[in-house]
Write a structure and sequence with these properties.
The chain is an alpha/beta fold. The chain is built from eleven helices and 26 strands. It folds into two domains: 121 residues, Sandwich (Immunoglobulin-like); 366 residues, Glycosidases (TIM Barrel). The longest helix has 22 residues. It binds alpha-L-arabinofuranose.
């Protein structure tokens, strides 16, 4: 059997893990809101129209923060449309997704849903068609206690206490020509700077995220970050990164290597932030908000058909990727990559949460179930808390189309408050198990091993409403702890959570 070694030391800590790296995203897009989290009349709907079965799955997934309301949607969104008496809210054409937005669910409802789902809102403002004035108004509406025009309107609309939204996105993907009112880097940097400044004047406790590139593949990538940060470095706290991967050619080995690209992307953006900070003699270090990430390609053709048949309708079935087993493996490796970069990546939002490129799917009037990608996120969020460890991994390597020297065992580790060590590992080999030997001698009192494995013989296997458990983790045996070393077999093509517990 192939061998891999991992060396961990209690003193080799990358950083504390910010729990917000296990965040998610709900956009007014497709059936994410209408027919996803919200379906009045559904057998499980509560008095607010929220599906309790979905809330239960979200609570189990454990997403500490949820970005909202877009996405591309936000660049044409007037936040004022989404508050006030529901029956009087305006219906608007959404030019991002060619649907009609009824605003039945808005700011108050979303904040309410967040408290039920045990998550914090991360609210995006519109820096496409709107600007500084709307930005300061919505912070005042949401966070100011009272005694001013916007905060009193919130109170009149039924929320006496401020929402206290701590995290704000300064627009979305403003580098992308597909954006409603796309901007150049310096145009965006100027408005982001001014918006951040006045938003913080209204509420100094908030943190704000500036839009980085919508992907590392953009022709403006790099220059965009340099130019826009030149304008707004002092007033922002995070830079966003977005990245989606696909496997249209069915090359599993190359697909599973994509997390190497993710790692390079993160390191490059961190380096650019530091370069701008250095140039500005800044003491402050910017952190990264990877606020859109996932696999996304299964539904692209289907979406064109939907629009051909049904433009401008409400809640069109868009971006409904059905995730297979290999997608879950790449998602696992993406999570491992965030942990490895825990000193810079402080927020990450799987895009998205329900129905739209999502870990949770629903049927109108029917069930809600977990897609394959639900499991690695759920397990990482549950066990990947505390401190990220600098794991030295010596693994067999392979070459594939785009990458050389790809580790067959992609692995990292964390240690939590109680001193339990969790190893997260993806075996990328299609055929071969790997025997892992981990040096844990510097950790006190470890006495037992737990092992959970996600594997399926078919990389294309999926979960459905009728077969919701086709792909799900199972407990495995056989791990041993002896003289401070953990030995365990990591099966071919699998996501693993291996815990050495006290
Ligand atoms: O998550 C789907 C879309 O992908 C978002 O609206 C946009 O920001 C990105 O291009």
């Amino acid at each position: 059997m192939k061998q891999a070694n991992m060396t961990l030391d209690r003193a080799y800590v990358i950083d504390r893990i910010d729990p917000r790296i296990y965040g998610s995203f709900i956009e007014h897009l497709g059936r994410a809101v209408y027919g996803g989290i919200y379906e009045p009349g559904h057998p499980t709907a509560d008095e607010n129209g929220f599906r309790r079965d979905v809330i239960e799955l979200v609570r189990r997934l454990n997403v500490p923060v949820t970005r909202y309301p877009g996405g591309n949607f936000v660049s044409g969104f007037d936040w004022e449309d989404s508050v006030g008496p529901r029956g009087q809210r305006r219906h608007r054409l959404d030019l991002a997704w060619f649907t009609t937005e009824t605003n039945e669910v808005g700011l108050h409802e979303f904040v309410q849903w967040c408290s039920q789902a045990n998550t914090e809102p991360m609210y995006a403002i519109n820096l496409g068609t709107r600007g500084v004035d709307a930005a300061r108004a919505v912070v005042e509406y949401a966070n100011h206690p009272g005694g001013s025009c916007w905060s009193d309107l919130r109170r009149k609309n039924g929320a006496d206490k401020p929402f206290g939204i701590k995290l704000w996105c300064l627009g979305n993907e403003m580098d992308g020509p597909w954006q409603i009112s796309h901007k150049t880097a310096s145009e965006y940097g100027r408005v982001a700077n001014e918006a951040a400044k006045v938003m913080k004047w209204v509420d100094p406790s908030i943190e704000v995220v500036a839009c980085g590139s919508s992907s590392s593949q953009m022709p403006t990538f790099g220059d965009w970050e340099l130019q826009m940060l030149d304008e707004c470095y002092e007033n922002v706290d995070y830079v966003s990164l977005h990245r989606y991967y696909g496997n249209p050619t069915g090359d599993t080995r190359a697909f599973l290597a994509r997390s190497m690209d993710l790692d390079a992307f993160i390191r490059t953006v961190a380096a650019i932030c530091d370069a701008v900070g250095g140039k500005k003699h800044a003491r402050k270090k910017l952190h990264l908000s990877f606020d859109e990430w996932n696999v996304w390609y299964h539904s692209r053709e289907q979406d064109q058909e939907v629009w051909k048949q049904d433009k401008w309708n409400r809640a069109l079935p868009l971006l409904e990727d059905v995730y297979n087993f290999e997608d879950a493996l790449l998602v696992g490796s993406m999570l491992i990559t965030f942990l490895r970069n825990a000193d810079r990546v402080k927020i990450a939002c799987m895009a998205q949460l329900v129905n739209v490129i999502a870990p949770i799917m629903t049927r109108k009037g029917g069930g809600a179930w977990a897609q394959t990608i639900y499991w690695p996120l759920m397990q990482a969020s549950r066990y990947g808390r505390g401190e990220a460890l600098r794991a030295i991994v010596d693994s067999p390597l392979y070459d594939c189309g785009d990458y050389e020297a790809v580790p067959e065992l992609d692995a990292t580790a964390t240690v939590d408050e109680e001193g339990h060590v969790s190893i997260f590992a993806v075996n990328r080999s299609l055929t071969e198990d790997i025997r892992l030997r981990a040096d844990l001698r510097s950790f006190d009192g470890l006495r037992a091993v737990e092992h959970s494995v996600l594997h399926h013989d078919d990389v294309n296997a999926v979960n459905t409403e009728l077969k919701p458990d086709e792909v799900r983790p199972v407990s495995a045996r056989g791990g041993e702890l002896k003289d401070g070393y953990l030995e365990i077999t990591v099966p071919a093509l699998s996501w693993n959570v291996i815990r050495a517990i006290r």
